[in-house]
From TrEMBL:
Gene source species: Actinoplanes sandaracinus
InterPro entries, per database record: Peripla_BP_I (IPR028082)
Annotated segments matching region Disordered: 129-162
Protein name as catalogued: LacI family transcriptional regulator
Leader sequence residues: none
Keywords from the UniProt entry: DNA-binding, Transcription, Transcription regulation
Lineage: Bacteria, Bacillati, Actinomycetota, Actinomycetes, Micromonosporales
Amino acid sequence: MTSDVEGRFSIPILMGAEDAFGSDQTSVFLCDARGDAIREKHHLRALLSRRVDGLIVVGARPDTRLSLGELPVPVVYAYAPSDDPADLSSVTDNVGGGRLAIDHLIRCGRRRIAAASGRVVFHLVRPDTDATVNGGRRGRDGPPPCPNGAARRGPARSRLSR
């Protein structure tokens, strides 16, 4: 079940689920809730009435979402974590990915590195951008973190067009 109407993440996850089941006689259903809680509840009831073996709930953004609560089948939240710490959520490690990218660029001899991220309205962009730029090499040999003010935030368009 997804709210990712563009299919940016839901389609690759669906394909991965199908591949994981292999050529077995297992079907994967895709339900698009379109960000509508009522539609999501309808899909959930329909899937449970069909006695599905489990659910993968894919978010459109990496923001925390409401848990579906106790269900008779296992549920995995992908990309958008559940607000219930008891639920299983598979999320991206943006800070770790940023550190890997910065380490690679530094190993390639680069020293002036820019980080372009998503819109700051998304929950994970603000802390990850700062942690990626300022913490890329923190605690390891190599260049120190960016000095105060070196990591700038704002519309990239205005800075890049100068």
